[in-house]
Each structure stands twice: as C-alpha cells, then as structure tokens.
Amino acid sequence: MASKFAPSVGGERRSSARWIEIMDYSCFRASTSWLSSKKYTYSAPPSAWRGQDIVPGVRTLPSFDDAVRGSFVSSSQSSKNGAGPWGGRVVLSTNGQDIRNPVTGRKFHVTGVYPSRKAGRSVRHESMHELAFIQISEVDPGVVDYRTQYLRFEFLIDGRLRTYIPDAVRLLSSGSIEVIEVKRDVSGLRDPEYKLKIQEAGRICQTLGWRFDVVMGLDLKAGNAFSANVQYVQSRRHTPVSQAEQFHVHELVWQEGGRAPLGKITEALGGGVIGLAKAASLMCRRRLSIDLVAPLVADTCVHAVSHTQH
Q1: CA–CA separation, 143 vs 279, rounded Å?
Q2: For range 192-197, the mean pLDDT
Q3: What is the pLDDT of residues 129-187, one digit of tens each?
Q4: Distance from chain centroid for Cα 104
Q5: What's the rounded Cα separation, in Å, for the pair 281 and 232?
Q6: Is there a contact between 102 and 126 (Cβ–Cβ < 8 Å)?
Q7: Residue 29 pLDDT
Q8: What is the pLDDT of residues 94-139, one digit of tens each?
Q9: Model's pTM, two decimal places?
Q10: Per-residue three-class SS string for the chain
C-alpha cells in the first residue's frame, strides 16, 4: 500500500516499509547511528525491565506518594513515624523531593540531574549506571512513576544504628512498590557491612509487601540493540503529541487487534523523523509499547498500553 507520507523517488511513491529503509540511511547516516549500524546484537531486556509485566485493562492507581505511604497503613505494622517491629524505621521524603542530594559539586564521580517526563520532575543520579537505570525506567511501560533518593532505612546492626538510602523507588503498573539498588557489578556487594545493610533493607521491604532488587549497571549499559533503542526513545520523551494524535494512534492500534507495525504508527503521527519521535514520546507517556529488542524498522511490533488512571 502506498504511503501518503513516503518520499517520492523519481516520481514514484514508496511503501511505508521502503520509506523507513530510506529514512534509516538518509536521516541517520552517521556511522554511529543505531538505526543503520549492524554492530548491535539482539539481546533480551535486562532484569530491571518490567514492560513484560503490564497488567491489561484500565486500572485506578494512587499517586506515587500515596502508594508508598499506603503500604504502611495496609501492613498494619508501623506507627505514624514509620517505626515498625523489625527493629528500625523508614524515613520518607516529606515534599516528594530527594531525601539526600548527591549532586554537591564536591564529588569525584559522575553526578547529575535528569529531567523526567514520567516523574514530572528532575531526578538525580550519582553514576552513569544510575543514569542508565533512570533512562530505562523512563521508557519502561511497566513503570508508572519513580523517584531517586526518596527514602531512608534506619536499623540496628550489632547494637549500632545503621542507615541505608536506596538509589530508586518505582511504582509498577501492578500497583506494587519496587525498591532498587544499582551497582556496577557484583564486586560492589563484597563489603560485609554493606551486604548486611542490603539484607536488612530487603527484609523490611518484604514486611511492607515491597519488592527489593539489586540491579547490575553493566547489564543496563550493554552494547546491544535494546540499549540503543532505550537511548533513542528516552531522548524523545519531551516531544509534544496532541490529544487528538494520541486518540488517533490508539484507535489505529486497536483496529489492528491491539498491535500494529511501527511504520504505520509513524505515518499516522505525521511521518518522517517527527513521526518516529512522537511514537517514542508516547512510549514514555505509557500510551504505546514498542518492541525494543531488535533494531527499529517499519515492521517493529507496537502494542497499545491500556490507560492507567490516577
């Protein structure tokens, strides 16, 4: 079927599949382009990816802060100040901001601020591995909202007060809370005292009904097609998309049985680089879920994500 938005070559219009192929090598001609490069391998998403766990149907979820605080009420095991029977307490941010600011200008490792569209605020990181995790959370349709440096665990180890601040807390599409610690690799877990802190934090999370996980940063930054696709999609997160365009795309996908090719979605959003950027933006808005495992082409599968109400 001829494409309305496909460029004309020699007076002949090309199909959407051919148009995407032309775009690959004209708009992304640089040797480092992930669209035209052949060096990226096919690989499954890292363990931090929750896109495969999306709960179908329209769900009403509380806000991020309400979901976290509601865990204490539902557990019926903590007092108003966060203290519980586990021999410690959980201190939450009172204003939604970071409980600790790692960006001080005095550290010798990478720190920075990431303007998140999904979180509706800037979130901070103190390593490139944490930044990679933030970017995956921004793209992941299984993650509804997230914060960094949001809470602090306080507990006793051998009679001494210890504190632990996890790198991130995420609200998942299932309504559950996930606490994440990001380490470069397993060597970051060798310190015995640090391992005890991780174990205590995990035990408190289990008591509250939360999930606790340690994510390896090297897995997040793997040089494969998935990582390259995440980089592209998150970089287009602020691309504006009108309500009319969102409705039109969702209607198109559902008419196709809940899934449609990326080339068709891109054309519906205006075609070209702008149409592709809008499709990426809709993934960060949790309206679309694009298969990111392989390099993006016209036939890449796109699913509609059922809207989650807050």
Answers
A1: 18
A2: 87
A3: 999 999 999 999 999 999 998 999 998 887 788 889 999 999 999 889 999 999 988 88
A4: 25
A5: 10
A6: yes
A7: 37
A8: 776 677 665 555 656 678 899 999 999 999 998 899 999 999 999 9
A9: 0.82
A10: CECCCCCEECCEECEHHHHHHHHHHHCCCCCCCCCCCCCCECCCCCCCCCHHHCCCCCEECCCHHHHHHHHHHHHCCCCCCCEECCCEEEEECCCCCCCCCCCCCCCCCCCEEEEECCCCEEEEECCHHHHHHHHHHHHCCCEEEEEECCEEEEEEECCEEEEECCCEEEEECCCCEEEEEEECCHHHHCCHHHHHHHHHHHHHHHHHCCEEEEEEHHHHCCCEHHHHHHHHHHHCCCCCCCHHHHHHHHHHHHHCCCEEEHHHHHHHCCCHHHHHHHHHHHHHCCCEEECCCCCCCCCCEEEECCCEEC
| Token pair of 9 as six digits | 């070559």
Structure tokens at 101: 């600011």
Residues in the chain: 310
Amino acid letter at 157? I
Residue 214 CB neighbours (<10 A): 17
Nearest to 102 by CA among 89, 114, 118, 87: 114
Domains in the chain with CATH codes: 16-43+235-309 (1.10.10), 53-220 (3.40.1350.10)
Q: Rounded to whole angstroms, what are the CA distances from 119 to 65, 116, 142, 173, 227?
A: 11, 5, 14, 14, 21
Q: In the prediction, which pLDDT does 276 show?
A: 92
Range 213-218 average pLDDT: 91
From CA 61, how far away is CA 190, in angstroms rounded?
38
Instruction: State how far the Cα of 180 lies from the Cα of 186, in Å rounded to an integer.
Output: 15
Give yes or no for a contact between 68 and 147, defined as CB atoms under 8 angstroms apart.
Answer: no
User: Are 117 and 237 a contacting pair, CB within 8 Å?
Assistant: yes
Q: What local confidence, expressed as pLDDT, does residue 26 receive? A: 35
Residue 19 or residue 291, greater confidence:
291
